[in-house]
Amino acid sequence: MRKNEKIFTLPFLMILFMSVISGSASYMVNPVLPAFLVSRGAPMEITGIISSLMSLVALFGRPFAGAASDRFNKKKIMVLSYLLSIICLYLYSLSNSVPMIIFVRILHGIAFSLSGTVSMAFGADFLPMSRLGEGLGYIGIGTVISTMIGPQLGDYIGTQFGMEQIFLWACVLNLLCAIGTWFIPYHPVIKKKEAFHFKLENFYAPELNLYVFFMGILSIGNGILLYYLKDFGSVRSIASINLYYTVSSIVTVLTKPFTGKWLDKKGVAYTLYPAFVISAVFAFLFARAYTLPLVLIAAVLKSIGQGSGQSAIQADSLRKLGLERSGVASSSCYIGMDLGNVLGPAIGAFVISGPGYGTLFNIYGVLLLLCIPIYYLYSRKRSNQ
Questions:
Q1: Which end of the chain is more exposed for a tag (fewer CB within 10 A), N or C?
Q2: Which domains does the chain have, with CATH numbers?
Q3: Global model pTM greater than 0.90
Q4: Contact 169, 28 (CB under 8 A)
Q5: pLDDT tens digit string along 15-47?
Q6: Which residues contact 328 (CB under 8 A, 6 or more apart)?
């Protein structure tokens, strides 16, 4: 798999294709889940809690998924996660009570923790280390494309055939992923056989603590905007605020390959410093945005800053730990991302109810700028060792 420096080999192209299909299946289901819960008797007030259960379970499941990835065949784990997702999606369509949906949501979180964590490590097995940043960038593009396809496809199916059919079609897409992944030619990099011990480093990489922290900081903005963008537009009387997502997705697709190549050529430091600066400018601009053009300019900056920063952290984490611990590297990065997505809305709720959005994004911009001296001191310390 690593005899040349090519990225677009047949196995890697298959992985990209599967990531788009499986991601589209997820984004078909997630937007309709609150309405589906209400149709099954759940009060509107708790639909958000039930919907977030999958992410919460995935957060706690990621360390175990990372450990499994490093001990067992990644391809088989991916196939297992798709099959488990099929079972969950089919059970959704049969569910007629809230407790049943909660149970299925928890089970779906286990499947999501497996696929989400292992997919990055699995893709890295087909990439040359010298082009790891670029390759992971293309995997990120696949995720963005699925966010553009999935909701539209789910809305069409729900309108034409009914809500239950969305889950069944998502089952079909995951089945295609399971079959396609099974036929990917793969020679696994397996950790040498030894007795497994429940040691921290088998589930989490302490040497990546700073990177996990940075992933969390970069992801806080996602968590805030995911929950409060619509309210932000309402408070500031900005029409068509959802164009933010359209512009963000297009910019991510267009820039990911170039930022990945820059990372591979210049290194992580030359990528992270600009990423923090650009992301901070986004935050300060968003704090002062009262018109749609300013919001869209901020969307461009955030896509470039966060996209390049997170890709740099993921790639350097995989390089540091090597293929034998790629699963733990992946899970550690995603733990930081999950924590940021959880902390963002929590911090946002507290600040928005008081000083407001301007203060919230100004504080976030300062946090991003503080990452620069922190990383500088870390780099100096590492170079002196």
A1: C
A2: 10-186 (1.20.1250.20), 204-384 (1.20.1250.20)
A3: no
A4: yes
A5: 889 988 988 888 888 777 777 888 888 776 677
A6: 63, 66, 67, 69, 70, 201, 202, 203, 204, 205, 321
